[in-house]
Specification:
- By secondary structure, this protein is α+β, with helices and mostly antiparallel strands.
- Helix content is 22%, strand content 34%.
- The chain has five helices and twelve strands.
- The strands form four sheets. The protein has a five-stranded antiparallel sheet, with helices on one face. It has a three-stranded mixed sheet with strand order 9-8-12, covered by helices on one side.
- It is globular.
- The mean pLDDT is 88.
Length: 172
């Protein structure tokens, strides 16, 4: 119903979500929906992610995307350990030559609040390239490119590494 998912897999949507959570998560009050995402495979072949806005008393879940007939929905949970492992793996895969600087944009729901202490994403970047200048900000969502345009992504971090390229000619 609009942005409210009423049922999922013959269960009320909230019951479906709770059933798939680790035992120590399913009874948390309030439910940490800011760490959860709905993954949607659209009937037209595209995919998207939808943040959860609320877990409602009637058993429905309000999403940031509306669903259409034929869409397939799954649940995903971002854990601090998994997120840190992913960011370290991605940084390790970057070129070894030190960038001139980095642009670091993180969701406010990911940094220190997510990790329960320091921002482990920023720490991983600084460990990978010690002493490199970093400029950035915390925001309430990041805009990322997608096949069909741009999308706002929640609980994400964007790191842009700037390296001077001698192959680019100046306009002077």
């Amino acid at each position: 119903r609009g942005y409210d998912l009423l049922t999922h897999g013959r269960l009320p949507a909230l019951d479906s979500l709770r059933r798939l959570l680790p035992d120590d998560w399913s009874n948390r009050q309030p439910l940490p929906i800011h760490l959860m995402t709905a993954l949607i495979d659209r009937a037209d072949g595209s995919t998207c992610q939808a943040s959860l806005i609320s877990a409602n008393a009637d058993g429905s879940v309000t999403l940031t995307e509306s669903l259409q007939p034929g869409d397939i929905l799954g649940w995903a949970l971002r854990t601090p350990a998994g997120a840190e492992q992913e960011i370290r793996r991605r940084l390790a895969a970057t070129a070894d030559d030190r960038p001139a600087f980095a642009l670091f944009l993180s969701c406010i729901g990911r940094g220190p609040y997510f990790y329960g202490s320091d921002d482990r994403d920023l720490a991983a970047l600084c460990e990978r390239f010690p002493g490199m200048p970093v400029i950035g900000a915390y925001g309430t969502g990041q805009i990322v490119p997608a096949r069909d345009g741009s999308r706002q992504q929640q609980n994400s971090v964007i790191i842009a590494l700037y390296r001077e390229t001698p192959h680019v000619q100046s306009e002077s």
